[in-house]
Structure prediction request, 261 residues.
Amino acid sequence: MASFELVSGAPASPVILHVPHSSRHIPADVRAGIVLDDAALERELDHITDSHTAEIAEAAADLAGLTPWRFVNRASRLVVDPERFTDDREEMTAVGMGAVYTRTTHREILRPDGTDPEPLIERYFRPYARAMTEAVAGRLAVTGRAVIVDVHSYPTEPLPYELHGEGPRPPVCLGTDGFHTSPELLAAAREAFAPCGETGLDSPFSGTYVPLDLYGKRADVGALMVEIRRDTYMTEPGGPAGPGLPRLAESLASLVDAVSG
Prediction:
């Protein structure tokens, strides 16, 4: 099974809904390198997975007037986290959660000390990064621009791994980048998600995902991270989705429509 999937949208759509953390799937050979027993691993997946975000993105794509493209990680972020840096720029390395996690959300051992991350980075991280770069380049080539909307979720209460968990935790947090998030994109997101409650900015999570080959270089690549507080649409920590999911999908579709033209 491929570890990621690019789901085609309308040829004229510049929008890519990026869903990096929705899967719980861990290949057996990767599972062998994780020290947690099965019950503890399931609990960790409950906490670390952005559950149902792929469903939100899919529903939004179905509702949008111009169908966006979707780039979906089909492997758990416990395999690799495709949104981390692989070098010293990554601040989450301080808590054992760089591109290849060695600690859990509760700062317990996930992989043994001394684990070499390179095999997983080579097998999963780099192909993902290349494919996402190609997907964005494809939108640029066809439409002249690209808009990446990252779809995430986060728990109501801070988890021990969070480095910036002391700030506000609104129903919807919008993560921004000074170069790739235009005022117009941010305003469209605030308006689209207004029916879901308060929208906050860069707290508890900040920044956006843009492929490194394009980051800080192409102003025609817009990017925004949408972080949804989990109690607004599901039973925490890893339970079923609730009636909030369709409302969020409608808001995401509204954002897609607002930036597609």
In short: The chain has one domain: 4-260.
